[in-house]
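Example 3.2
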Amino acid sequence: MANLLVEIGNTALKAVWADGMTLGKTFRYQGEKMFHFIDSLIEKEKPAVMVVSSTIDITLEVEESLAKKCGKLVILDRNHTATATSNNIPEYLSPDRVASVIAARFLFHGTGSVVFDFGTTLTVDAIGADGTYEGGNVSLGCRTRFKALNRYSRTLPLVDTPLETKPMGDSLASSIESGVIGGIMFEIQGYLSHFPQKTPVFTGGDALYFAKRMKNSIFVICNLVLMGLAIIADNYAEKNG
């Protein structure tokens, strides 16, 4: 049987069937009936291991329901931190960051990495060459910055992520665009100068957008979280096979 990996984020759900580390087609859902959507994925095939990473708390009722529909259920949320602690990762990290660290540790063992996740938030996590988690930071994501400027000021308009920016804006809109995008670019460069020996890894919804603006060589792995969930599922299957 294959494993089912589910990532419930701040804005949407992503799910994928996996055979070991090989990921299949990604299914996406955005709405309130997330667990009905998961049920629809497992109507015809029972997963050997189902791993659910969720930014929302999984209730006991949902946990019991999902557990009946798979060989083994593994949950990563605020109340299920065993996966983090067993992998020597701080339990205060969000589930998606735990999965990203596990994936980066596997992919870049021996060199270390610094993982940038561009989503609702911009998170930065440093992993040592030996796999040790060295710490991380959290700041506002790109679109969140645009929304914050509009919401917490009386005069600034809400602008969208631009295709191109100028070094310095020459209008109110372009000043906001250049300020937000340029600020994030300076942020990235600052981290990279602090970790010159580590491999830079970009993931998340805006990863490609910022990777195109980089002069350095960057690894872009859009499914880094799902890869981490695949490793978790595969490790469980090996230990209990």
